[in-house]
Amino acid sequence: MQSIVLDVKGMSCGHCVRAIEGAVGGLDGVEKVAVALEEGKVEVEFSPEKLSVEKIKEAIDEEGYDVE
Fold this sequence. Notes:
- With 68 residues, the protein is an alpha+beta fold.
- It has a single domain, classed as Alpha-Beta Plaits (2-Layer Sandwich).
- Helices cover 32% and strands 34% of the residues.
- It has a 4-stranded antiparallel sheet, covered by helices on one side.
- β2 (30-36) and β3 form a beta hairpin.
- The protein is globular and about 30 Å long.
- 22% of the residues are buried.
């Protein structure tokens, strides 16, 4: 497993948390998603053999949030 922490802009409420957790958590290879709303951080544990960091960023971007 690999763990990354992404800076995500535009999150403001529980709906944002659920949207990101649902989008990223639904990707094949994701083990855990933890959103820290106030810090603007998303921690993802995933299998790099199954999933790239770029695909994780794309899933967040498709929900309407900016990944730094």
